[in-house]
Amino acid sequence: MQRSKELFEKAQKYFPGGVNSPVRAFGRVGGTPPYFEKGQGAYLFDADGKRYIDYIGSWGPMVVGHAHPSVITAVKQAAENSLSFGAPTEGETTLAELIQTHVPSMEMMRFVSSGTEATMSAIRLARGFTRRDRIVKFEGCYHGHSDGLLVKAGSGALTLGEPDSAGVPSDIAKLTLTLPYNDSEAVEALFQAEGDSIAAIIVEPIAGNMGMVCPEPSFLNTLRRLCDQSGALLIFDEVMTGFRVHLGGAQGLYNVRPDLTTLGKVIGGGLPVGAFGGRAEVMQAIAPLGPVYQAGTLSGNPVAMASGLATLNTLTEPDCFHRMQRNTQRLAEGLQSLANARNIPMATCARGGMFGFFFSTEPVVSNFSAVMASDIDRFNQFFHAMLDAGVYLAPSPFESGFVSASHTLDDIDETLASADRALAQL
Ligand code: KE4
């Protein structure tokens, strides 16, 4: 770790916290983040040459594994024809076609360069289409860092939102109402009282930014019904869950059709891509067709399109997704049984290639307050024991884990052996 320490020390001079995205600084878990020089399949190699089995996958994008030959070949070929034109290219349409095959609710779409851009644009579109200003989000869900989405519940769930970050004007925050995740009654009550003033509900249909929290059976259907009744739009933020929990995203898993969907991460395969899309009638409000402005210099970038296309073409090969799903299930069930055998309270869950675990006495963790009641110290100890053993988990209990299509059964079994030794130290 010596070289990483030196590099992290130097980075402090240039970047706040030494990083270009806060979670990378290991603030939640302490210690020095490894600096990686190479990734290959399921593995990462740090600046000191240490190998890790990777369960972050760049926070989701590396779903087919690092430096997958098909992806690298496609990116090299595209790059040789120039990196960007700022003009239409066929690759955008080809990727859109593939996305729409698996996410049919995206009747039309627009590519952007990040998940934040996707959700920010979807919110503006919903407001422009409905001519309403207020939006609803849920505690513990993260939708990127645009002002209106960095808002937490005010005191008492129905009061106006309060900024969750410095720099967000209260006049903007107050337009965002935050309710408890999985609390259908609270949403029902709000819509009974004020549904006709709501432009949209935005939700992570499986929450992945407070750790992994799955929707209760009726939750998503309740959101769908209330939006239908009130004229609000239902936005599924599938930046993390898209092509991750199911080839059709969480909407494919739970069979609930949103009005708008946002994507990111996997559809770029590691290069900057986001997308928002949905009902054609709504999307036609977007410039240049309609009055809602949205634009981007590198939107639909040809090299990023090539990376996304090669990634999704690999992921949709026969048995690829199923194999990843089976390995993820084995990991989550294995963790659960190891913790049970040692009488360590743990709640695990897995869907597709995504998993989560909490050191919690609750058999199922279903909202933010239950997450906050879990044993954070135990998580930190477990995280570091696994990192020392060469297993790279998310450096925060409020993140999710990701298995790639390159992980093998041996990798899972090696991980579980390390987990058993780590649990023994708790
Ligand atoms: P980006 O702007 O980071 O591409 O996407 C924002 C975003 C939107 N919606 C959901 C559901 C997301 O999970 C994200 C970003 N996820 C985090 C991981 N929790 C990215 C990692 C980071 O912030 O460094």
Q: What do these coordinates show?
A:
The chain is of the alpha/beta class and 426 residues long. It has 2 domains: 2-67 and 318-424, Aspartate Aminotransferase, domain 1 (Alpha-Beta Complex); 69-315, Aspartate Aminotransferase, domain 2. Helix content is 37%, strand content 15%. The chain contains 14 helices and 16 strands. The protein has a 7-stranded mixed beta sheet with strand order 4-12-11-10-9-5-8, sandwiched between helices. A hairpin with a 2-residue loop joins strand 13 (347-351) and strand 14 (354-358). The longest helix is centred in the C-terminal third of the chain and has 22 residues, at 320-341. The mean pLDDT is 96. Ligand KE4 is lined by residues 21, 23, 59, 114-116, 119, 142-144, 204, 208-209, 237, 239-240, 264, 274, 399.
Compact description:
The protein has 426 residues and is an alpha/beta fold. 37% of the residues lie in helices and 15% in strands.
User: What gyration radius follows from the Cα positions, in whole Å?
Assistant: 21 Å
Largest sheet: 7 strands, mixed
How much helix, percentage-wise, in residues? 25-40%
Secondary structure tally, helices: 14
**End-to-end Cα distance:** 23 Å
Molecular shape: globular
What is the count of β-strands? 16
Strand % is 15-25%
Low-confidence stretches: none
Given helix and strand content, the structural type is alpha/beta
Mean pLDDT across all residues, rounded?
A: 96
CATH superfamily of the largest domain: Type I PLP-dependent aspartate aminotransferase-like (Major domain)
How many domains? The number is 2
Q: Predict the CATH topology of the largest domain.
A: Aspartate Aminotransferase, domain 2
Would you identify the CATH architecture of the largest domain?
A: 3-Layer(aba) Sandwich
Q: Give the distinct bound molecules.
A: ligand KE4
Strand arrangement, major sheet: 4-12-11-10-9-5-8
For the record, what CATH class of the largest domain applies? Alpha Beta
Order of helices and strands: HEEEHHEHEEEHEHEHEHEEHHHEEHHEEH
